[in-house]
Amino acid sequence: MSASFALSGCNGIVMKPHGDIAQQQADLIVTSTLLMLLIIVPVIVLTLFFAFRYRQSNTEATYAPDWDHSTRLELVIWGAPLLIIIALGAITWITTHKLDPYRPLDRIAEDRPVPAGVKPLEVYAVSMDWKWLFIYPEQGIATVNELAAPVDRPIHFRLTSTSVMNTFYVPALAGMIYTMAGMETQLHAVINKAGVYDGMSAHYSGPGFSGMRFKFHGLSDTDFERWVADSRAGGHALTREDYLKLEQPSAKEPVRRYASVEPGLWGAIVDRCVDGKKMCASQMMAIDAAGGAGKGGVASTMRSPWRDVAGVQRERIVVAALCTPTNPLGLPIETAAVTGAALKN
User: Fold this and answer.
1) Residues 297, 291 contacting (CB under 8 angstroms)
2) Contact predicate 108/20, CB 8 Å
3) First to last CA, the chain
């Protein structure tokens, strides 16, 4: 009774979702649970039966203190769990690849393949402290703490984070996907029934975590186009300056809509160089891949004499990155770094 009361507040959306990916995941949970119950239930029943049958007060039970082995019993004890493990392993292997979040959808529902010529809806999701930013590159709009998609159309999410690791989770749509700063994760999913569903962060990320929720609207094609038009009419442009303000920590942010998005913003978010004042992550990796700033890398060295406090003449080795307009990598850096010193006789 107490368990039923505790669960009465749950709406069961995890086990009865309205998206094909989430439904397949729910079916996997049910199948795995039933397979494990094939072992768990008999073990519990037999444990209770043996405790009752061979209790001390039952003088009619067989008393065999020297019994120690039964080949038939050993086969049952070890064989049955082994078969269950093999079955679970096979199912897990198949579904792990079939439900890979990076794998494009080949169906929108059971016995309903993706219609020919239908392209997935592209959505970029950014987890912030403590809100969600969604960018629609094809529609040229962006929203804060509101997400929408047409029913029965595949959705391709690309996700990242501005700071700590987080998770994107719409129980009715699909499972949890992590977001990480400087990295991009992906999710392919579809919603099969119109409605308004809860979305959230499922990974604790600080004091504003509990308010890091949003609504996901499953809409018809006509209603989705109307939603996009309303977003364009009721918002202003999302520039880099606006993004930097939005990036500042804040809790329980209201829904916002942006009529347009500055080109290149998503790439700068993932590259962690929206403000334009620091080197992008991809540029750093390009320098590292080319050998770094050391000998044989993308750098030139210059020597300038100087004397230390003891009056000993030394040479300062200054490494200047080849980031001039003639640099083959074309990296916009005009700085120099002191990397060491050498004793000069």
Assistant:
1) yes
2) yes
3) 88
User: How many Å apart are CA 101 and CA 21, to the nearest integer?
Assistant: 9
Helix or strand run (H / E) with residue 158: strand 155-161
Supply the pLDDT for residue 341. 34
Measured CA to CA, the distance from residue 154 to residue 122 in angstroms comes to: 9
Average pLDDT over residues 281-301: 71
Inter-residue contact 331 to 289 (CB < 8 Å)? no
Distance from the Cα of residue 90 to its chain's centroid: 25
CA distance 262 to 241: 10
What is the model's pTM?
Answer: 0.78
Q: What sign for the dihedral angle of Cα 24, 25, 29, 32?
A: positive
- The helix (run of H) or strand (run of E) holding residue 186 is strand 185-189
Quote the pLDDT of residue 296: 53
Residue 55 reports pLDDT greater than 50: yes
Q: What's the alpha-carbon Rg for the chain, to the nearest Å?
A: 30
Output the pLDDT for position 59.
87
Per-residue CA distances from 205 to 40, 79, 140, 209, 333 (Å)? 37, 45, 29, 6, 34
| Distances in whole angstroms, Cα of residue 179 to Cα of each of 63, 132, 157, 302, 322 | 62, 11, 11, 42, 34
When pLDDT is averaged across residues 104-131 and rounded to a whole number, the result is 95
Instruction: Say what the pLDDT of residue 293 is.
Output: 62
β-bridge pairing 121-127 and 155-161:
parallel
Q: What φ, ψ does residue 246 adopt, rounded to 5°?
A: -65, -30
**Closest to 256 in 3D by CA, of 121, 130, 147:** 147
User: Burial letters for 20-50: b for 16+ Cβ neighbours within 10 Å, e otherwise?
Assistant: bbbbbbbebeeeeeebeeeeeeeeeeeeeee
Angle between helices 71-98 and 20-53 (to 10 degrees): 170
Give the bridge partners for 336, in sequence order. Answer: 320
CB 178 within 8 A of CB 28: no
